[in-house]
Amino acid sequence: MKPTLSFLLLGFFFTLANSIHAQEARLANVPSKSNSRKPIASGPLVVGVFAGRFPCSEIAKDWKYPERPECTKVKWAITFFQDSVTHQPTTYHLLGTLNRQAAREGKWSIVKGTKTEPEAIVYQLDPDKPDVSVYLLKGDDNVLFILDQQRKMRVGDDYLSYTLNRIVN
Amino acid sequence: MKTLKISTFILLAACFVQASRTSPDPTTFVASTPCDMIPRTMLSIPANADCEFIKWNLALRRDPRNQNPTFYKLSYTYGMTQPGTTGFRNGGTSLTKEGNWISRKDATNKETYQLNSNTPETSLSFARLDDNLLHLLDPQGRLMVGHAGWSYTLNRK
């Protein structure tokens, strides 16, 4: 990922994070539009951009971050890239409030199976580093669920869920 | 006297049976979701209401004898965010819905919970993701898409 693109994506994400409450009510069940002044990544190289907020403690523990009581929620925006010809997964770009200093980047792949559904489609970030992989269950084209390291569903609370939603320009 | 004893016994037995049908705690799911037009319609929230998000508390009861779905109670609050908190400005507006619910499985064995299935205009459907998670469906049966702030997944309390 070129530094310029990283900078643009980082700027987009933190604008997005600060404008969560400015979302307008949508008339239909379609992905929400990004409120960022800068367009989000799109085109044949991009599978999609997914964003969401969820409780902090579990992910911080998985990422081996020191426990911080003030960390109550995490915001993520993940861009999935693909080969424009074969449509095979290539790289991802994860911007989040746990890693404000530098985006997390790497390869991603599509694997099958959760703890309870052997045929489920799962996106695995960093398949070459299974101890720090992130697993995302594909609910459909617009919704992803963040799984734990055993590929089980994570349970949120009355304010936040472990779900990412597609956003568009 | 004997008649009185029998009547008392029958009354106590009836109370016991009724209590045993309703005494198990319901399974409760909670969430905060966006306030888009589809949930507004389902929850009778006025289209012009100031509403950034909805807090849900869905209690599902089953018949303890056979585990069949029976009653639900949905308590929800909507309104504008109170900055710096997870609550609502001025407490929001709170409402409840109650009725019957059913569970059905499709050809691919995916399970759906439906509240008020006999009144389509106010019916609510959820995909059962597992024992602990439900996800609101739109009228066409698709997963509702949230945004960067909130999603439509309900979490077991």
From TrEMBL, chain A:
Q: What is this protein called?
A: Copper resistance protein NlpE N-terminal domain-containing protein
- Give UniProt keywords alphabetically: Signal
Signal sequence span per UniProt?
1-22
**Gene3D superfamilies in the record, alphabetically?**
2.40.128.640
UniProtKB/TrEMBL annotation, chain B:
Q: Which residues form the signal peptide?
A: 1-19
Keyword tags: Signal
The answer to whether keyword Signal applies is yes
The protein here is known as Copper resistance protein NlpE N-terminal domain-containing protein
